[in-house]
Structure formats: structure tokens, C-alpha cells
Amino acid sequence: MRSPCEDDAEEMLRFIIKASGETEFLMKYPEEYSDFTLEQEKAFLREGYCNQNGLMIVCTVNGKIAGSCQISFCTGLKDRHRASVAIALLQEYWNLGIGTRMFEALIQTARDRNEVRQIELDFIEGNSRARSLYEKMGFRITGVKPDAIRMKDGTFLNEYMMMKRL
After folding, report:
1. Domain membership flag for residue 163
2. pTM score, two decimals?
3. Could you give the C-alpha distances from 48 to 55, 92, 122, 129, in angstroms and in order?
4. 145 within a domain of the structure (yes/no)
5. How confident is the model over 71-87, as pLDDT tens digits?
């Protein structure tokens, strides 16, 4: 596991497009990345997670990006005790413990910041595999956003909010 760099931009784009096509439970469909350029991805990697308010980690297997995760820290006086996390993993690497390892790294990163007291995430209704991982890592459901997600076929799904206290 490591932080991605600008040189990873092309592979990161391929990764997220492939990952979003393998599951209905990421927030975008693959085609939503069609206008995203290599230069934009480089800028995102250069600026987005190279600061003190966020961290992105990629997991590579045999030199290939298998998964990515990120943590974003809130910065306001009223919310700087909070952080949010997200994760994506290619299907061929599911159920190998990679997601657990990535979450352990994110949780430790949050613990290393004394002001952070809770980590939050959202997941889409029906994603029982992810929910099991989150619950294993100590997250609990704190709320629901009814009909927050609209699938291509018109079906509405709830989005669940989860939180872990540190």
C-alpha cells in the first residue's frame, strides 16, 4: 500500500472506470468518467490528497492497482473532529483481506490526528458485502437518506450513513 503519485494517473483512471463497471454500488457509472482527462487526474492526484486534510492510498498487486481508499478530514471549528472515508476494490481482489487492510490504514491515519473522534462513510442499499466489512471494522448505521440513489432502470435505493467512534 502506498500513496499514488502523478505517474499513476493513467492507471488510476483505468482502475476507477473498471471498478465502477463491476458493481452498482460506487457513486458513478463508468461512462461518467468519459470527460475526465489524464491531465485532470494528474491534477487531482497532485493537489487533492497531497495536503494535510486528506490522504489517498492505493493497494497494488504485482504492480497493478487493485484498490484505492481515501480519508478526508473536516477542517471547520465545529466539525474538525470528523473524517470521511471511501473505498473501491476491483472484483478479482474481493474477499482477500485487502479491504480490511486498507481500512486499518485509514483508521490509524485518523487516530494519528488527536482531534479526530469519529470516522464516517455512506453505502448504498443492497451492498451487503461492503456493509459486512464496515461493521467488522466497527462502523454502525447512524441514519438513512431515503431514495438518495437513482439507478439507470429508475429504481430508487436508500443511502445509509455509518460512523465509527475512535
Report:
1. no
2. 0.88
3. 8, 27, 20, 28
4. no
5. 999 999 999 999 999 99
